[in-house]
## 1
Amino acid sequence: MSVLIVGAGPSGARLAIQLARAGVEVTLVDRLVGPHRHAYSSGALPLDAVRRLGLPDEAIAATWQGWQLHDPSGLVHQWWSAGDLGVVLDFGRLRSWLWEQARRHGVELIQDCRAALSSLTAEGASVRLKMRDGQTSLRSARWLIDATGARRDLLQQAGLRPNPEDPLLQGIGVEWLLQADDRQAAAWRDRISFFLGTAWIPHGYGWIFPMQGQRLKVGVCHLPPADRSTPGSLAGPLQRLIHRCGLSACPVLDRHGGPVSSSISRTEPLAAGALLAVGDAASSANLLGGEGIRHAMDSADQLADLLIAEGLWGDSTTMARRYQQQLKAQRSWRWLVSGRLARRTWWGLDNPRADRRLQRLIHGLSVSTEAPALSDLLFDYNFERYGFRLLPYLL
């Protein structure tokens, strides 16, 4: 009785740990050679999520007390709190801690390995594992979990496709880690900064987050409409943002990036036979602010509870139905509004009219909202008090 998880990011590793704690035999496979490779994630979380998920201090790169938005005209808006509102994670350290926890609980972790679906039935699945040196092996398991993020490797290999009536919002993000000095980092310390408007990047947004040792995460995300292609490289918009912020002289310590995608209602098929998806592969990311880590880990906890409660030898059809029902039950009106706002905002952000509309919304928040309330809006999707201001985006 075993579970094989492909993808050792926050959702895959978290699921492996939770199942192993319950006595399940778990194999966790990842294509990366080490946890600090390709550590792409902006990683801003509210404080309550850090406590609830039990994340260690070693994974926290910085804390922040303020929000800073650069609007389409270049005007800077700030909201400040007397205490910490959240943290910025060091994604490499977080993944390293998760891998260490997985091993400590008896998970077999296979690194530097790619997985290809070999067979899939209602009773089990097998995958072909290929190491970088060319060696291959065939592994079988009662349950196979796709935790490969936005790539959805196993779902695609199994022929599962998004629901045309609830298509994926798809894009790409790129992030550079810069080494600033004390003077250069001063304008970005103790706050998370976002850049909104077509002058910064059409159909998307940029960000600067503080890290330890005067380091800065600087990135852009591009989420165009379905009928427009994503550019082959976001280096140009990112370099322009870096230049406009006076950070061009900062050495680049790391470059990373990848695809982002999620549906609004999560109605796409996420199970077939013994295959189940989790985390970003199951559209757990919220693309209004590109937030994925805490939702991915929550998704892992929910799937672990379901697998343990239903029994690992349970019927695949029943499991798939209950998994989809569980996800459907989580689609609160706040989540749906957040997704629609993301689609309306990023798809439409390519002209002066959209810039003016966004600028009016930011100005309204600036004069009427305090920092904790803005966190409630952007992290907890507390839209009630802002309903009339959001109507232009939803109509």
## 2
Amino acid sequence: MSERLVVIGADAAGMSAASQARRMAGPRELEIVVFERGGFTSYSACGIPYWVGGLVPERDALIARTADEHRARDIDLRLHTEVIEIDVAGRRVRVRDLGSGAESWTGYDKLVIATGARPIRPELPGIDAAGVHGVQTLDDGQALIDTLDATEGKRAVVVGAGYIGVEMSEALINRGYEVTVLDRGVEPMSTLDPDMGALVRTAMCGLGIEIVGGAEVTEIRTDDSGRVRAVATAEGEYPADVVVLGIGVRPETALARAAGLPLGEYSGLLTDLSMRVHGHENIWAGGDCVEVLDLVSGRLRHIALGTHANKHGQIIGANIGGGYATFPGVVGTAVSKVCDLEVARTGLREKDAHAAGLQYVTVTIESTSRAGYYPEPAPMTVKMLAERRTGRLLGTQIVGREGAGKRVDIAAVALTARMTVEQMTALDLGYAPPFSPVWDPVLVAARKAVSAVQRRG
């Protein structure tokens, strides 16, 4: 008799888990049912800003595998169907068909929770007004595009200057909007230290984006029809024909909380190395709804990235399908861009290291993407943190032009291997004048960090 696997959520983690489980277990061994409240599956949420901005010509380019393709692989995928309750003791879920409103129960032998994350919507007057958008799903992206196409005015306010806020501000500039970014931080990109965030601010201002730091939004103001007309802060009012929320995301774990499943400090589900939910042998979770181990600080974090979600799904599917796989943790690597400025980070920021009780040194160097004598060398700034006594690499941030961003992968590998900055200086990296100076910028920073560690004893 076959078992039934129920998966809640049909994007990266959920469909990776379902697909991997199907590859490892035949239809006679495992029935797979996937519930998805939206209308799309297996898509790149990271690509939405580029679709909104016109760099990606059509929505379907972001879809890696359609619902029909999944169904052809013996996966019972049900779109526009929302799971509204998990009965852990009864091993069943209650679902609602969003078209008809009909509700029913579906039993499971094994359950995967891949509910993702939701955009943060602060409880402010007017936050639900017409013209105010969060951007997390393809449906969200389509709704924003529809608003932009129908709006006569060309004034946009982006609330928040993290990855989403920065990328969406560029997308709106590309669509001909005047863009103001309101952020609580002094500098944009709080995932960087403020001195590196200042470099991002300079680039954004160069695009014509107005950035207001230290701005606490107090109200979304509307006109007589209930449509957004301005965003208010304690210091002033900023006219807006459309508002995009780029404040960040939180784990979507309301279902899990109601079911009594264990949640962490950031409200993400807690799992073991196999992605099995703590204390529940037949329930797994992955993607943006879980917390993961930071291999540098040793603490749990919530990091919403498609790279992790796909890995989680592969691991869950392997374990459910009879194999064995684990997810050891992350080092916090991320990369983005503003126009031609590339922004990357991995490991700890200064405040992260301080919070973890680590003593550290920092160094910052200026270099170029290729040999100085080769045509068009692009500038970059590299900041590196190392543990004071041991010299262990703690984190790296890179801001620069072409060729800067992906250099962060060197540091990501070094962090995973727990290398010291001195060990990094001996790395045998590729060299040719079109690609790098003789000493790669990351290794220049490592050399300087070695000297800083030695000076500080």
## 3
Amino acid sequence: MSILIAGAGPAGSRLAEILANRGCKVTLVDRLKNAYQNSFSSAVVPISSIDNFSIPIKSISAYWKSWQIFAPDGSSHKWSSKNELGVVLDFGELRQQLWTKAINAGVEMLSGWKVNSVHSLSSHAQVELQDPNGNKHLRKVLFVVDATGQKRSLIKHSQASSNFGNDELLKGTGIEWILQDEKSSNKWKNSISFFLGSCWINHGYGWIFPMAKNKLKVGFCSIIPPNSTLCSNSSNINALKKLLSKFSLNTLPVIERHGGEIKSTIKRRESHSDGRLVGIGDAVSTANLLGGEGIRHALLSAEILAPLLEEACNSLNISKNGEFFVLQKYQKSLSRCLGWRWTVSNRIAKKTWWGLSGKIGDERLFKLLNGLALKASAEDISALLFEYEFERYGLRLLPYLIGLR
């Protein structure tokens, strides 16, 4: 029998490839008929991720050397490096490359299919699949992996409650347009630009990233408090249109429009496995909400789960409640690799985005940006936002980072 993975995003595809290369029989199922559909992701990763997570070179759309942050009053701060700090990925191409690598490793790819149900039994899991024509198919597999992202299509039924055992679930929505820009792309070249403050959007942030062939990736994400009367979708679209007008980008052709949700618990206390069902990537809250970053954390979860899942396939060591002892290592191992800074970053994200609305939030942000402008280099900003090294800025800046001042 094989392992079935539901969801062929970065986490699911990478896991499928690793397991197949280890000699496992793997089936990868995805609702999308092709890898380029709804390719919503800001898709910015640090330069180290290319080698660390075997990111296909063909998926790299642009390199960048500078951080540019536009403050609440419209002014900007820029930190530049002589070296390349990171890349902007073409997310659709990333998926396509990962699909190809998985198939070449021997994975059975079922695109346009979906998993209707999973029943975890003592000797196997019974799965009902639905093909693109609506026909139902039953399969017996050893394990099922939920890699369906924030939808948590399968593992959510095993999670204890809507509040994940008192671990708060933060929710955000985002939109992104891809523009064809033949004239002004040099203004945004080699930099990733962010827009922070109530003049741009409440409870969120915007971005403009360069892409290959004179394209621009422009988007907004908002993480609105539960008691707010604001509508995140309308806030995002209004902010995006205002941004395009501000920088005279509103006449450019829009090549793609896409959007989606981001959901993550702060402490990742939700169940990561239930019998023969295991979660991976965003399904177990690997997306970090400070910058909406998910790709490299999802890939990390795949690399941690793969050897444990292979061992579980060959193990008869099962607890009385049907849990596999080897899979119980998974959540602890993943939390240890993400580290304590990852959790602190999510706490900061909650304070930052929920509090970023109006004068008080703007003033706090001004102080933070001014402090960083005086103390930080481009490499320091990368360490702050990618490695979550908040403590390196000393006690003077930490209160602003965590919202105490």
## 4
Amino acid sequence: MDNIYVKDLVLATNGELLSGSLDLPIKDMVIDSRQVSETSLFVPIKGEKVDAHKFIADVLKTCNASLTMDSSILNDEIKSTGKALIKVDDSVNAMQAFAEYIRSKYSFPIIGVTGSVGKTTTREMIAKALSAELNVLQTYKNYNSQVGVPMMISRFSDDYDIAVLEMGMSNHGEMERLAKMIKPDTAVMTLIGVAHIEQLKSQDGIYDEKINIVKYMSDNDIIFLNGDDAILRRRASELSNRVLWYGLGQDNDYKAYDLKIVDGEQHFYVDTPYAKKVLVKLKALGEHNVRNALVALANAELYKVDIVKAAEALYDFSGQRQQVINTDKGIIIDDSYNASPESMKASISVLAGYECKGKRVAVLADMLELGENEIKYHKLVGEYLKEYKIDYLIAYGELAKNYLEESAIDGIHLDSLDAVYEECLKWLKPANILLFKGSNGMNLKEVVNKLQKY
């Protein structure tokens, strides 16, 4: 951030300056005491295990300012630094209020991205497409939360033409707070799945929370919705904003057709309201990535980026999630970062559509945090497996038994990562493809890493 000082922080947070100068500059916010620089604002958070207030005296030897919820920590050592210590009632609320203030100082457009599945890849693709002609700020790592978003906003500067911010939530009220800080000019909703259904009870409940992304947008502002999602189609009439649809169906404003996998690449054509038959080539495979690319191109077109240049930029896209690893012993598709019924289906479709002279092997682990209907959702994945040509299934975890039982395809159920690794070794052959998919907590990544070293 540019031209922001302690006096702005005190004003934005209604804080009390306990020591130091009001004229010290602040250029970013951090919550990790190891990451402070001279112009940082340190935000101490009281966690279950650690109260970061104990680091304040040390960080003020380096950084210009720190918040505190405890004025009693002020001592001669802190005073002697000359740095600013600001008393606030709640450090997280204060950093959010400060983020709102910072946001008000910048006029470049902000695209907010949410949804149950695909937020990160969609955000990355939008940023990639826009970067063909614009200087883009996008969410760093997983800074999409109540704490992460304020830290992202603190990175705003006059160097950027546009920002693409990911907005994650898991409980009631969280999306509204994010929207209040970000005030997006454009919104994207990927789909309504069952992630966080344990807290929000139903997919309609998830929609009700996520749609708060538009709460601080005007009626003329655009929200891009996945037109292939049944819940979004059903609920869109409730919105007063401008809705533009993207997807594979012909009734979408931005639509893809003639999908093919050619030499390990996803090829397809795109029609938009202003451009017809634009060829897109992706290294990221699957219909879900086609949709991600569609909304990336939609945003590029909206913000006057040449759509052909944007499509060319997407060819170089390499996301954090699904990784295709070519080894001399076989192909590994590593999508082990996380899992839901929707993302499971997307990954299985990638495996089924991948050109393969040998066997297609799915290594699928439990999906976690699905609430009281977890068995139902695992059986649903088993039903998906019936739709696609999968030669062998390795199911790992207690719930994963349901994949095998429902699909009735050839396979084995295992209850340890060592057993999964040994079974995978039998199938790791030059003509074969192995897909790894499961919740991060199931640690399938460990097996992938071992296989790469084998």
